[in-house]
Amino acid sequence: MSDSLRPLNRPRLYEQVVQRLREHVADSGLRTGDRLPPERTLAEQLGVSRASVKQAIVVLEVQGLVEVRHGGGTYLLRESLEVEPVEELVERKRRLPDVLDAREGMETKLAELAAQRRTDEDMAEIDAALSAMRAEIEDGEIGQDGDRRFHAAVTAAAHSALLAEFMRTIAAEIAESRNESLRQPRRPSKSLAQHERIAEAIRNGDAKAAASAMARHLRTVSRVRLLDWDPEG
């Protein structure tokens, strides 16, 4: 069969609901912090089931565009709903577990080595990264650059050329997992606090505590809404 005659992909109903919600937010002038209409109202107005509306909301939640407050409604975290295609979400969901496994294996060891090998200059860069992340969060951002800088500083402090090279080979995937984690509600401040505990263990030269603190942090990083999402649900 000619490739041009391959079967057409039909958009899922909830994808159409997502598009309508994007248009509604744009047309209504809703802003960050505003509440979307209740699911029941949306279902009635759009002529779809509440299940379709609920799945559309989950897609927006997975992308960090809305926050669902149980019993309190759905609130905008961005002023526009620029939605990533579902196919790209599915592919990222497929990749993420492997990336998280790799991070846990390598970064736990890097934190341990950093506690054993760090110099005063290394510690100064770790502290500077923490300050940068704190400033970003205080400015209402998710702290992505400070987070990247912190993990890079820990890697440098380990003084392991081969592990550093391994980290560079998956830098794009690590950035993706960082994004996924930091856009979870209230996650940036929690990650900062965990970074501070890792830094303190490294400062004290406590390799076991540094590895343990990094492992706890990466378990938090792995708790993202995307991994619970069922695109066929």
From TrEMBL:
Gene3D superfamilies the record matches: GntR ligand-binding domain-like (1.20.120.530), Winged helix-like DNA-binding domain superfamily/Winged helix DNA-binding domain (1.10.10.10)
GO molecular function, one term: DNA-binding transcription factor activity
A Pfam family recorded for this sequence: FCD
Transmembrane segment boundaries: none
Keyword Transcription regulation among record annotations: yes
Domain of life (superkingdom): Bacteria
Signal sequence residues: none
Sequence ranges assigned to domain HTH gntR-type in this UniProt record: 11-79
Keywords annotated in UniProt: DNA-binding, Transcription, Transcription regulation
Protein name: FadR family transcriptional regulator
Protein's organism: Saccharopolyspora karakumensis
